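Thread amino acids onto this structure.
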């Protein structure tokens, strides 16, 4: 029987790359996103299911898992990827953006893990992969909401891993540096405008300044790592915050 993988933020970027790779590996994929057009088109292309859900709400998270269970009877793999970015100093950081970031990038992964947990326990096999960030391990200025949520995701990962081990469930976080996604493209444009630089200069002088490997990560490279963690060969890896940081934290 094919395994069932639920991937959030799957209409583009890392989430879409994960859905494509897991589908290629023979899994039935459930794509979740607010972008109904792109999400539906990609789900159809992959022979999967699309669910439009606002994961910043409890009802949206419940709806997503209920529809996945209704369509497939169970969930084997959960990839928590959905997120967004906001950049501003703490004293100017909008309170509603803080609340939205924590809801989507920390509360939603908890709720989705909680709602998938009974099915994973019942089948004595499950894989939860949280797409964190190098900013789950280190900080940068002007990203307080994003960094707080990603740091919290590591605590969620470790706790869930301790509880899931006896039930055959592994829980891990992947912490990539900058990945070539629409989200990062928008950051490059914003930084170029703010610093009066070209986009290439932003990548070289700001984004890749701490890195040993001087290039952006491709979404498929993150998806390949996700696929490995979702396989039986990675059954002994759990509770880990695994870096794909181009050497950022080697300093």
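Threaded sequence (251 positions):
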């Amino acid at each position: 029987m094919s395994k069932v993988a639920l991937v959030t933020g799957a209409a583009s970027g890392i989430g879409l790359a994960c859905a494509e790779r897991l589908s290629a590996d023979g899994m039935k994929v459930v794509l979740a996103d607010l972008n109904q057009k792109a999400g539906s088109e990609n789900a159809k292309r992959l022979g999967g299911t699309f669910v439009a859900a606002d994961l910043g709400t409890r009802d949206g998270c419940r709806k997503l898992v209920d529809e996945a269970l209704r369509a497939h009877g169970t969930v084997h793999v959960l990839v928590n990827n959905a997120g967004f970015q906001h950049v501003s100093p703490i004293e100017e950081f909008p309170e509603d953006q803080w609340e939205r970031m924590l809801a989507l990038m920390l509360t939603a992964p908890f709720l989705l893990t909680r709602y998938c947990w009974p099915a994973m326990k019942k089948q004595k096999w499950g894989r939860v992969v949280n797409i964190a960030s190098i900013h789950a391990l280190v900080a940068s200025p002007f990203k307080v909401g994003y960094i707080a949520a990603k740091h919290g995701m590591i605590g969620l990962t470790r706790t869930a891993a301790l509880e899931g081990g006896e039930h055959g469930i592994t829980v891990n976080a992947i912490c990539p540096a900058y990945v070539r996604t629409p989200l990062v493209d928008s950051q490059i444009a914003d930084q170029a405008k703010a610093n009066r630089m070209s986009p290439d200069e932003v990548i070289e002088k700001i984004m890749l300044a701490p890195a040993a490997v001087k290039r952006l990560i491709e979404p498929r490279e993150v998806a390949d790592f996700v696929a490995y963690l979702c396989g039986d060969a990675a059954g002994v890896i759990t509770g880990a915050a695994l870096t794909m940081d181009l050497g950022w934290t080697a300093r």
